[in-house]
Amino acid sequence: MNADPGGWARGAAWLALSAAIVAVIVLQACLGTAPGPPAPPRAAPARLAGPSALAPFFSALAALDRRQAERPLRIIQIGDSHTANDSLSGRMREQFQQRFGDAGRGWLPAGVPYKYYQPRLVSVSETGWRHVKPRDNEPGLAFGLDAVDAQSDPRGAEMTIDSTGADGFDRFAVEFLARPRGSAFTLRIDDGEPIRVSTAAAHAAVARFGRALDPPAHHVVLNAGGRPPVDLRGWTVERGGPGLIYENHGTIGATVDLLAQIAPEAVAYELAVRQPALLVVAFGTNEGFSDELDPARYAQRFYDAIAELRRHAPQAAILILGTPDANRVDKGCQAAACGSAPGLCTWQEPPKLAEVRDAQRRVAETAGWAYWDWFRAMGGTCGIDRMTRLDPAMAAPDHVHLTKAGYEMIADALFGDLMNAYGDWKSRGPTS
Fold this sequence. Notes:
The chain is α+β, with helices and mostly antiparallel strands. The chain has 2 domains: 44-103 and 241-427, SGNH hydrolase (Rossmann fold), CATH 3.40.50; 110-238, Galactose-binding domain-like (Jelly Rolls). The protein is 33% helix and 24% strand. It is built from 11 helices and 17 strands. The protein has helices spanning 5-31, 55-65, 81-84, 86-100, 264-274, 285-288, 295-312, 351-367, 374-377, 383-388, 404-428, and strands at residues 48-49, 72-79, 104-109, 122-127, 129-132, 149-152, 157-163, 169-178, 184-189, 195-198, 205-217, 219-224, 231-238, 243-250, 278-282, 317-321, 370-372. The strands form 3 sheets. A 6-stranded mixed beta sheet has the order 1-17-16-15-2-14.
């Protein structure tokens, strides 16, 4: 008989392997799982949640696509300093207008409401104006979406606005506070004759002067003086044909509670005039830096404020931009990178910021509003710290704000997600 030691060894190995397989099967049975191929990895949750809430907005976009629209489609973004800085909104405006048509800059606060004000597509200057905000507690001022009032010096005041686009604008309007014995201001559009506008009225109310222009214009000068002072809210340079307008109305340092400080009648008037197809709401950073914040109460205030906006613009879809990543460090520290060894001298996210973000997400889901995860778009925890360390930097040294390039990167991600959702909506047909 010929011996086969290799064959015996292979047989023993096979028996051992078979026993191991049986043991694994028995163990899986005990655990309640069946043997089989490994499960595929779970897909990461989409940054845009609740896109079906954007159906009215997508329908308006589709009308532009089919060349069936006769007037501009308007998007209004409201928020804090991330919105006041026109980098994110400016990039969104650029992307939307390249895709769906350019209907101009739209409404802006009158004059120069704060230092370093740099709106895109226009150049603005002023002399002789003071800017009053809700925190100044001056009576009789019904603040609108911009939450600021430009008040003229009785000795004389001037402000100018110039369109930097080659096509200029064929619609101009200015919003002001009318009241008994109100003063007048004058407008000169390009080289035209001065236009006198009286602010006198029987009762105090927000009012508007507007004019269609043919041919289009590029330059407006507004002059005011005398007593009582003239109170201006905003002005617009836009075009009346089909296309898209993206407005940004931001207040530095604001929380969502700002929306309770503006006058419902003024906001109702402004939204009725503008008829936005989409309201983009971007608050939360300043709330998240408040260690005393009660998340449950905040969630209710957040819902109430946005629902009030929605009440005045029932045709508009709502998109909540979730609170972005932000860090802080104790004063006097030589800060180490976020995520390094724990301690007081590392950049860290304020603990309430995540709770604000979660509250906004839950409110949006419950209310049926769309929600976009800005935090995830920045890479999640420590995202803003990593962005400060890029070359060139995508976030500011304060670990709260982004650079122009950083805001544009976020805008590109947001616009891409919206266009993907719009494409999905179109593929499912109008009943979607």
